[in-house]
C-alpha cells in the first residue's frame, strides 16, 4: 500500500470524485484540489485545497509536499493544453515525483477526435518532466452513450458502422485507484475500455430496450453533422470536437477492447446493459 501523499484534481466531477472516494475508503486521505471549496466532497481524512489548473501560485501552495498527482483532464477549452502543462509544471516545482494522467484512447497529434490531440500534447509534456508517470487512456465514457440519444429517440452522428468499447466511470476509477495505491505502473500507458466494442446501432438497441421505447441510430455524413450542430452558437473548435467524437468511431480509432480493467482493477468491466440496469437515471430524458 502506497504511503504517498496523493492529490486528486477534478474531485467535484464524475471521475475525480469517484477516485477520491476510493482513496479515502482505502484509508489514504487524498488532498482534494478544487476551484470552489464549498463543493469539495466530504471524505474521511481528505483535505480540500484551492487551485485552478494552470494557476501556478495557488498550485504551489496546494501541492506542497505532494508525492503523486492524479490529474483529471480539464473541461474542453481552447487553452486546455496550457492549463494542463501549467499544472504539471507547478506540481513538479512543488516536489511531485509521480503523475497519473487521465488521457484518451488513441491520443495522437493527428487523432481524428480533435480533443484527443490535447491529451497527446499533455502526455508528451509529462514525459519531458522526468517524473514517473502512468497514462490512463480511457475510451468514451459508457455513462455518455445514453446522452447521445436525442429526445426523439435517435442517435445522430457520423460514426458509420464503426465500433467503440465504451467504459464506465466506475471501472476507470477502480483502475486509477489500483494504480495510485499499487506498484509497478510507472512508465505504463493503459488503454482503458469496456468489455466489448459495439456499433452505435447496437448501443441504440440496448438503450431502447432499457428505456422501454424504440431508439435508433442515424449515420450522418460529416457535412450533415457539422450542419446539424451549427445552430448552437458554439465556437468552431467545440463543434469540431463534438463531430469528431463520432468520426473517430467511424475510422476505427476507438475500436479497441483491452483487459486493463480486469488486469489492474481485478474485475470485469461493465457492459452497456449492466450499466443501464445499475443507472436507470441516465435514461430519464427518454422516459
Ligand atoms: N472519455 C470521455 O468520453 C470523456 C467525455 C467527456 C469529457 N472527458 C474528459 O474527462 C474529464 C473528466 O470527466 P468527468 O466526467 O469527470 O467530467 P466532469 O464531471 O465534468 O468533471 C470535470 C472536473 O474537472 C474540473 N475542472 C475542469 N476544468 C478545470 C480547470 N480549468 N481547473 C480546475 N478544475 C477543472 C471540474 O471542476 P469544477 O467543478 O470546478 O468545474 C470537475 O471537477 C473531463 O474534464 C474531460 O477532459 C472525457
Commentary on this structure:
It is a single chain. With 287 residues, this protein is of the alpha/beta class. It is 38% helix and 16% strand. The chain has helices at 14-25, 56-62, 80-93, 114-129, 169-181, 200-211, 222-228, 236-250, 260-265, 272-278, and strands at 6-9, 31-34, 47-50, 68-71, 98-104, 132-138, 154-157, 163-164, 188-192, 198-199, 216-219. The strands form three sheets. Strands 3-2-1-4-5-6-9 form a seven-stranded parallel β-sheet, sandwiched between helices. It has a two-stranded parallel sheet with strand order 7-11. α2 packs across α3 (80-93) and α3 (80-93) packs parallel to α4. The longest helix is centred in the middle third of the chain and has 16 residues, at 114-129. It is globular and about 55 Å long. Bound molecules: NADP nicotinamide-adenine-dinucleotide phosphate. NADP nicotinamide-adenine-dinucleotide phosphate (NAP) is lined by residues 9-16, 35-36, 52-53, 72-75, 83, 102, 104, 138, 140-141, 144.
Please outline the helices and strands:
Blueprint: E1 6-9, H1 14-25, E2 31-34, E3 47-50, H2 56-62, E4 68-71, H3 80-93, E5 98-104, H4 114-129, E6 132-138, E7 154-157, E8 163-164, H5 169-181, E9 188-192, E10 198-199, H6 200-211, E11 216-219, H7 222-228, H8 236-250, H9 260-265, H10 272-278
Parallel strand pairs: 1-2, 1-4, 2-3, 4-5, 5-6, 6-9, 7-11
Antiparallel strand pairs: 8-10
Helix pairs in contact: 1-5, 2-3, 3-4, 6-10
The protein binds NADP nicotinamide-adenine-dinucleotide phosphate.
Amino acid at each position: 500500500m502506497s504511503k504517498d501523499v496523493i492529490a486528486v484534481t477534478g474531485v467535484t466531477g464524475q471521475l475525480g470524485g469517484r477516485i477520491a472516494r476510493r482513496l479515502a475508503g482505502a484509508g489514504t486521505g487524498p488532498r482534494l484540489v478544487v476551484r470552489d471549496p464549498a463543493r469539495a466532497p466530504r471524505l474521511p481524512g481528505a483535505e480540500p485545497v484551492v487551485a485552478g489548473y494552470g494557476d501556478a501560485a495557488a498550485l504551489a501552495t496546494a501541492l506542497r509536499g505532494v508525492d503523486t498527482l492524479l490529474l483529471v483532464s480539464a473541461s474542453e477549452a481552447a487553452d486546455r493544453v496550457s492549463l494542463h502543462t501549467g499544472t504539471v509544471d507547478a506540481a513538479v516545482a512543488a516536489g511531485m515525483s509521480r503523475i497519473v494522467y487521465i488521457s484518451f484512447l488513441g491520443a495522437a497529434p493527428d487523432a481524428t477526435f480533435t480533443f484527443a490531440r490535447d491529451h497527446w500534447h499533455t502526455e508528451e509534456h509529462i514525459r519531458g518532466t522526468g517524473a514517473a508517470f502512468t497514462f490512463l487512456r480511457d475510451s468514451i465514457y459508457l455513462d455518455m452513450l445514453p446522452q447521445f440519444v436525442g429526445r426523439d429517440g435517435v442517435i445522430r452522428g457520423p460514426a458509420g458502422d464503426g465500433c467503440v468499447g465504451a467504459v464506465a466511470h466506475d471501472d476507470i476509477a477502480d483502475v486509477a485507484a489500483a494504480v495510485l495505491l499499487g506498484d509497478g505502473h510507472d512508465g505504463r500507458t493503459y488503454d482503458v475500455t469496456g468489455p466489448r466494442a459495439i456499433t452505435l446501432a447496437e448501443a441504440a438497441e440496448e438503450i431502447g430496450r432499457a428505456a422501454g421505447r424504440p431508439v435508433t441510430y442515424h449515420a450522418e455524413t460529416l457535412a450533415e453533422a457539422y450542419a446539424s450542430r451549427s445552430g448552437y452558437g458554439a465556437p468552431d473548435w467545440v463543434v469540431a470536437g463534438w463531430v469528431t467524437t463520432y468520426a473517430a468511431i467511424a475510422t476505427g480509432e476507438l475500436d479497441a477492447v483491452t483487459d486493463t480493467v480486469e488486469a489492474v482493477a481485478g474485475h470485469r468491466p461493465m457492459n452497456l446493459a449492466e450499466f443501464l440496469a445499475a443507472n436507470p437515471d441516465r435514461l430519464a430524458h427518454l422516459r
